[in-house]
């Protein structure tokens, strides 16, 4: 048996997890900082880093306790080295290096985006390759072609905002709170998603890249003309016009995400799709992918919600690929705010 401790601190969750043999999640502890940042309508990097420092020891201890594991039972430590907020990343990377050095364990330096892709394989270890992976979160919106396990070719990325960032910004401008994704997901239920005609951005150069900033601006303009634009936290959740507006916005995002994934699948003759990252919790997105899977004869996999948003089990899961291939990181491996997969 191989046991890996995973550590994740790239943004505003302090997380640690213990994973056995790729798929057995012995523990997954996530300390969310949402309460700390919600009044600012987004993550404040300095506050996030300070809270990681305060919580990391306890989160790691809890993960070991819940797993019934001692330090001696560990075979390696996997940590997110990037991309993310540099102050936040440094906390996890320093903790992992200290543990690796003190316990004489291999250090596995993981790209956060590889972690998101691998999160789907914890509950679905038999996903077939080649596969197309959509990573759609607050910081990232990219599509990867994965011809085989551990290989990721980026075929589309956002040119401006990430999809989750668009959800968060639209919720903020309507005074609905943070994070915006789950709020909009809830308010859009049973609303008229055809009430507003929002744009679906298409690149002029035939690329499959995404752009969500124009959509956000279109929502802002519409909100202004409907008298719905709002400063922090005073949006009227019961307003049918507001609910129709967020439902129409959500549909525009979902349409674009599904369209691009389908185009990559057709172009590359791939029949397997993996959808991960916080926005993959979205009910509308999941339903649309399920419908599309049936129509297009695709197999579409989502991790369950706790593994979809930021967590450390996915970092440990990616760690297994590195461990098996002996891709060990040196003690001088830096944390990197920008790190393409
Ligand atoms: O993966 P994640 O936890 O962190 C990043 O790596 O960014 O994703 C967080 C993002 C936030 O933008 C949040 O609004 C969005 O995921 N999100 C959702 C939903 N739940 C979380 N977006 C749409 N619908 C949801 N149900
Ligand atoms: Zn993430």
Strand content: 15-25%
| First-last Cα distance | 29 Å
Number of strands: 10
**Oligomer classification:** single chain
Radius of gyration: 20 Å
The whole-number mean of residue pLDDT values reads 95
Describe the overall structure.
This protein is α/β, with parallel strands linked by helices. The longest helix is centred in the C-terminal third of the chain and has 29 residues. The two termini are 29 Å apart. The model has no long low-confidence stretch (mean pLDDT 95). The site of 5'-O-[(R)-(carboxyoxy)(hydroxy)phosphoryl]adenosine (KG4) has 19 residues, from helix 5 and helix 6. Zinc ion binds next to helix 4.
Label this structure with key terms.
alpha/beta; binds zinc ion; 341 residues; 5-stranded mixed sheet; binds 5'-O-[(R)-(carboxyoxy)(hydroxy)phosphoryl]adenosine
List the helices and strands and how they pair.
Elements: E1 3-8, E2 13-20, E3 24-32, H1 34-37, H2 45-67, E4 76-82, H3 86-103, E5 107-111, H4 112-123, E6 131-136, E7 141-146, E8 153-157, H5 163-173, H6 180-187, H7 213-225, H8 240-268, E9 272-276, H9 283-296, E10 299-301, H10 305-308, H11 313-324
Parallel strand pairs: 1-4, 4-5, 6-9, 9-10
Antiparallel strand pairs: 1-2, 2-3, 6-7, 7-8
Helix pairs in contact: 2-3, 4-11, 5-6, 5-7, 7-8, 8-9
The structure holds 5'-O-[(R)-(carboxyoxy)(hydroxy)phosphoryl]adenosine (KG4) and zinc ion.
